[in-house]
Amino acid sequence: MPGYELPVGTCLDMCPAAERTQREKERRPDPQRAVKEYSRPAAGKNRPPPSQLRPPSVLLATVRYLASEVPGRTDASCAEVASFVADRLRAVRLDLALQTASDVETALVLESALAVLLAVVARLGPNATHGPVDPMLLQAQVQESFGSLRRCYALGAGPHPRQATFQGLFLLYNLGSVEALHEILRLPAALRSCPALSTALAVDSAFREGHAARLFRLLRTLPYLQSCAVQCHVGRARRGALARLARALSTPKGQTLPLGFMVHLLALDGPNEARDLCQAHGLPLDGQERVVFLRGRYTEEGLPPAGTCQILVGNKLGGRTLEDVAMAEEEDEAVDRPTTEV
């Protein structure tokens, strides 16, 4: 609408009073813990008044509540938690889009929301195909969130001290994508030289080149949030490494590799996972716990086994809460950040 100025949200609760009253009639939730649901804007419908929009400070508090309280619940499955969090984070992004907020405030909310979403999706696992959440819709929401955040960065305002981290997360989530790599390579050199982004570029290079030893060595060193972003590619990377080994080693009599070597090379969580991975691809084990590469036996059917990813992802949380991740995953080498706006 020409001349229309976006309002400033005035709702100081995680859920506006009108919605909270309606939900109390239906389900009687704790009013202090109710979080605004996502509601798709209807064509021709009036914009919500400021009293129904949460300002950036309340949106950030809402994201931190979701990070600290929801994933720790024991009365709901991972899929139910993922569905709930994804819905509430969509509502956060919509509230943000419907009001006036500075670029710095917008980036901070979007960064925190994206951190929580990545962690929840990683807990759900890459091969989840049933339950109350659609993995394809979750993936689309992650990509939309990256798009919103990167557009905010592109406006040129700031400062955005976590930009290198989240540009790196974008590349890790889209590992192997030519389009994503080209977008990152168009960023200023000073930003690309930051540790978080240069590490993501190194991971992408190793993945693209099929260098399994270097790739999984790098994946072991990634912080928790970066590991969440890349988890969806781990199964494919392991399958690719196994296929290359099969092409190099398969003979009519069968060359062998120790199972322990496979565990180390592919950063698996133990011999049981290594056995499952090899057997899922038609590779037998001999009596000495060695993988036998027989010509014509390697096969690929369906998705790669999901695996547990405790070494590469789960163990890295290290007793922290997702609130810690959402609030601040600053780069460890702060001295290497650009000193000028990029």
Automatic annotation (TrEMBL):
InterPro entries: PCI_dom, SAC3/GANP/THP3, SAC3/GANP/THP3_conserved. Transmembrane segments: none annotated. It comes from the Eukaryota. It holds the Pfam family SAC3_GANP. One of its GO terms (biological process) is spindle assembly. Signal peptide: none annotated. Residues 18-55 are annotated as: Disordered. Residues 20-39 have a biased composition (Basic and acidic residues). GO terms for cellular component: centrosome; cytosol; nucleus; spindle. Residues 141-306 form the PCI domain. PANTHER family: 80 KDA MCM3-ASSOCIATED PROTEIN (PTHR12436), SAC3 DOMAIN-CONTAINING PROTEIN 1 (PTHR12436:SF38). This is SAC3 domain-containing protein 1. It comes from Bison bison bison (North American plains bison).
